[in-house]
Input
Amino acid sequence: MAKQKFYVVWMGHVPGVYTDWPTAKQQIDGYKGAKYKSFPDRGQAEAAFRKGFASYLNQALVAPSGKTSRPRPRPGNFPTTDTIIGKSISVDAACSGNPGRMEYQGVTTSGKRQIFHRAFPLGTNNIGEFLALVHALAFLQKQQQPDLPIYTDSKIAMGWVRKGKCKTTLPRNAKTAELYDLIDRGEQWLRDNKITNPIYKWKTEVWGEIPADFGRK
Output
């Protein structure tokens, strides 16, 4: 007999704690950006629901106390790791046409839980990759996680972040005004803040698609 699970829906049609998956699933189906998780007992589920998704995510990202062994980045302009660091964030972007409708997101590398997502009617993939990295850096700063690694599969975005400049040629006009506002804010954030989180290149040829991939290839 399968052990009963309890399902927390932080963001859905009707947030709450549910005792069966079909009912919980009804709350997240068709709800963009739904946040949910299963737990082995009611106490854990109710505690997680009361604390909220941000508190749960913060705990999930924090490494256990004591010293941890992390793979050392390989030397070079675009460092990577020999193995995947599970306690990390992965970011990616997708664009329907280039330029075209663009979106980006960040997820937990282990578990692929979405942390943030933004979409724009007009942009480029490189802009999305750049903004996703800056968004992840700012998010981790607010979460007081200055050492948590970030994975990206874009060398261009890594270079732009290092230089503190989104070197896009996309025209700045009414259609891209909102996007450029975010780009300007991202560049300003890079000027005002020191980058402490390591940024690693995701090895797609070895590990497959990055966990934040939108699956449109």
